[in-house]
């Protein structure tokens, strides 16, 4: 059976995240979703991030609705998750996380493990042609589908 790894913070869950997850599940049903721990999710961000439990529920609910299956979600405390100790056929990444996938394969090679095929999913663009991002959503610039939100007076 084909085994796939995909990971992220997934908050707020947006169309870019959904494309990443769809791509993973289109490769096979045995998908390990690495969801960043609270410490990892907040460590590199200045904005507030929902708790692991809230993010896990959002991803779980979406996968169940979209694919009709119970997802396998695991908490990760580092950028590598289980990819340095388990065999995977594919790792699905965004342009932002592509360098991490390259590093994973370098470490796997040093450990004598077979490389993981990297599937890079391009950014989903908002209606202004820029990538949909959680930061842009949280800042009220776009919604989770990339639609531009009306600016309030004084925001200019």
UniProtKB/TrEMBL annotation:
Subcellular location: Cytoplasm
Cytidyltransferase-like domain mapped to chain residues: 6-139
Record flagged with keyword ATP-binding: yes
Keyword vocabulary terms for this entry: ATP-binding, Coenzyme A biosynthesis, Cytoplasm, Nucleotide-binding, Nucleotidyltransferase, Transferase
Primary location group: cytoplasm
EC number in record: 2.7.7.3
CC annotations in GO: cytoplasm
This protein's pathway: Cofactor biosynthesis; coenzyme A biosynthesis
Molecular function per GO: ATP binding; pantetheine-phosphate adenylyltransferase activity
Reaction catalysed by this enzyme: (R)-4'-phosphopantetheine + ATP + H(+) = 3'-dephospho-CoA + diphosphate
Matches recorded under Pfam families: CTP_transf_like (PF01467)
GO biological process: coenzyme A biosynthetic process
Keyword flag Methyltransferase: no
Function recorded in the entry: Reversibly transfers an adenylyl group from ATP to 4'-phosphopantetheine, yielding dephospho-CoA (dPCoA) and pyrophosphate.
Family assignment from sequence similarity: Belongs to the eukaryotic CoaD family.
Protein name: Phosphopantetheine adenylyltransferase
Encoding gene (name): coaD
